[in-house]
Write a structure and sequence with these properties.
Number of strands: 10
Number of helices: 11
Largest sheet: 8 strands, parallel, barrel
Radius of gyration: 18 Å
């Protein structure tokens, strides 16, 4: 049995969906429910972005979580600066979250035309950020933004970005289909290639899929088949544009339909329906009767 880590980002990525708004108390209640289900990691938010997220990381320490580890989300250090003087890095450390998830650029086009830095500086930004947080005693996950688009455009440079993260101390490198436009066969092929790039570092890959082509769950399962050991998504697929991979369907498929995988520490997903409806109700959203596995239909 291969254990697959479940990483929930409903409280951050999910709240970017249209009409989704969660109070601080809502976020704490959902955190407790996710922990009860057996989720491995819960991303609470970006502590530098707003007061609510900053306070969440203070209040969540009062919860007696049984299994889940809380993660703080952030970005690589700013260009031309040092990690130890970066406000974002300080906010992550001050959050006292045991895990920090850092997003960085993979696609050379984004590096030169959006960040407007050299390809070398982007690699330094990735490495400096992860090294700083690792030395501060945090477990660091690296989200490789637009990874599949970047790999298709320039595989050599895309490989360099994730190798820089691994060399600096990232424990998992997550391949992000940020545009949600990659097909399952492409996800499988590129995930295998990325895993081979990181093999010498002993760092596994994870997967984070958006749903713009309604393939987020299929792409997530394809990545797991290709070697990913860490899955990111949201409850009910909440998220910006067309949403994220629905962890309800991902967990159900991995535990009930697929053979050879263990999720939720070997527990059965008996409380998925309860959790799905709790998130809908807490976010003041309508239930989807036709939702797979948990819908009334």
């Amino acid at each position: 049995m291969r254990s697959i880590q479940i990483y929930d980002t409903t409280l951050r990525d999910g709240t970017q969906g249209e009409g989704v708004s969660l109070s601080l108390n809502d976020k704490l209640q959902i955190t407790r429910r996710l922990d009860e289900l057996g989720v491995d990691f819960i991303e609470g938010g970006y502590p530098l972005s707003n007061e609510k997220d900053a306070e969440y990381f203070q209040r969540v320490r009062e919860l007696d979580l049984k299994r889940a580890r809380v993660c703080a989300f952030g970005m690589t250090r700013r260009r031309g600066g040092a990690a130890d003087g970066d406000a974002g890095m300080q906010a992550l450390v001050n959050s006292q979250a045991p895990v920090c998830t850092i997003v960085g650029k993979t696609w050379d086009f984004h590096v030169t035309n959006v960040l407007q830095v050299s390809l070398e500086e982007n690699l330094a930004m990735i490495g400096d950020t992860i090294r700083f947080l690792a030395e501060a005693g945090r477990e660091v996950f690296y989200d490789a933004e637009h990874f599949f688009d970047g790999w298709k455009a320039n595989p050599d440079y895309a490989a360099q970005t994730i190798q820089a993260a691994a060399a600096a101390g990232a424990k998992v490198v997550i391949l992000c289909d940020t545009n949600g436009g990659t097909l399952p066969e492409e996800v499988a092929e590129i995930t295998r290639a990325a895993g081979q790039c990181l093999q010498s570092y002993g760092v596994p890959v994870g997967i984070h899929c958006h749903n713009d082509c309604e393939l987020a769950v299929a792409n997530t399962l394809a990545a797991v088949e290709a070697g990913a050991v860490h899955v990111q998504g949201t409850i009910n697929g909440l998220g910006e544009r067309c949403g994220n991979a629905d962890l309800v369907s991902v967990i159900a498929n991995l535990s009930l339909k697929k053979k050879g995988y263990q999720v939720l520490a070997g527990g059965r997903p008996a409380r998925l329906t309860e959790l799905s409806r709790f998130v809908y109700e807490t976010a003041n959203l309508n239930l989807r009767n036709a939702q797979p596995f948990v819908g009334q239909s």
